[in-house]
Design a protein that fits this description.
With 269 residues, the chain is α/β, with parallel strands linked by helices. The protein has one domain: Vaccinia Virus protein VP39 (Rossmann fold, 3-Layer(aba) Sandwich). The protein contains ten helices and eight strands. Helix 7 crosses helix 9 and helix 9 runs antiparallel to helix 10. The structure holds S-adenosylmethionine. The site of S-adenosylmethionine has 19 residues, from helix 3 and helix 5.
Length: 269
């Protein structure tokens, strides 16, 4: 999988934090509230976005294992200022190769964000079966679900997004990715394994003042679409130029659909 820069993760984090579905977060807090202390595993943690969003809602005593294959991101995650009873261990690991090693020991919650849409059905199945075998609850935030809304609209939006959504299903190191269908796949898989699932939308909402992130996203989408060859380069470039002008003029808004869910096993551990 190509690297995710700390700069990009920092740019998106406030939008992610605002987007996280509040009913899903409440369900996690309610579920874990009776425990005197919790041990959480964050898969593909990046710089620790989920740690920062979720830890204030959990019981005071927390032990987090932050897992990623990018050591530079892990170092930043480790530097997160936290309340005194929160203990963090960072673990460099390739989750494609060593998923089972990431799930070692007593675990009260496995969490992840912005990962499911990057991985394959086979890997998701492997994760779901590993969690179900030990009745471990699972929180997955911010899985892209294919919905987008542009203001103003453009003639080429549909074709650029078709290319972008096709790019979402390419191999990012875990086999062919499920992309926009990953969250629905995983919700259905957990239900089939006897889990209860709370889920809801967690959309990025960007207004005219959110110029930097819109510029970055639009460039990424134009590049992804171009890689898939869906639109002639001249048309993709013209689309990006018009969109950038709208962003610079302060008249561009963007909604990007995501799904959050929390899956809890019916069996008690
Ligand atoms: C979109 S970022 C999400 C980061 C973080 N969860 C967040 O929400 O900000 C995807 C993360 O997956 C990590 N990643 C990608 N492939 C991986 C692999 N094979 N093993 C472990 N981590 C991986 C990347 O380093 C990156 O931190």
């Amino acid at each position: 999988m190509t690297g995710f820069s700390a700069e990009w993760l920092a740019l998106r984090e406030p939008y992610d934090a605002r987007a996280r579905n509040p009913e899903v977060l409440d369900a996690i807090a309610t579920f874990l509230k009776p425990l005197p202390a919790v041990r959480v595993i964050d898969l593909a943690c990046g710089t620790g976005s989920t740690l920062r969003s979720l830890s204030p809602r959990l019981p005071a005593r927390q032990n987090w294992h932050l897992i990623d294959h990018d050591v530079r991101l892990l170092m930043q995650a480790k530097a997160t200022p936290l309340a005194k009873d929160i203990d963090v261990t960072v673990v460099p690991l390739d989750l494609n190769r060593d998923l089972e090693a990431a799930l070692d020991g007593e675990i009260d919650l496995v969490a992840t964000s912005a990962l499911l849409d990057l991985v394959s059905a086979a890997w998701l199945d492997r994760l779901a079966l590993a969690l179900a075998a030990r009745s471990i609850p699972f929180y997955a935030a911010l899985s892209y679900d294919g919905r987008t809304g542009f203001t103003p609209t453009d003639l080429f939006d549909t074709r650029v997004m078709a290319g972008m959504n096709a790019h979402q299903t390419t191999d990012k190191g875990f086999g062919p990715a499920l992309g926009p269908t990953a969250a629905a796949f995983m919700i259905a898989r957990f239900k089939s394994l006897g889990y209860s699932v709370v889920h809801g939308a967690a959309d990025w909402v960007m207004g005219p003042e959110d110029r930097d992130i819109q510029t970055e996203i639009l460039l990424g989408w134009a590049n992804a679409s171009d890689e898939m060859g869906g639109l002639p380069l001249a048309d993709a470039t013209a689309w990006l130029t018009r969109r950038r002008r709208a962003v610079e003029a302060g008249c561009s808004s963007l909604r990007v659909g995501h799904i959050d869910f929390f899956a809890t096993p019916s069996a008690t551990r």
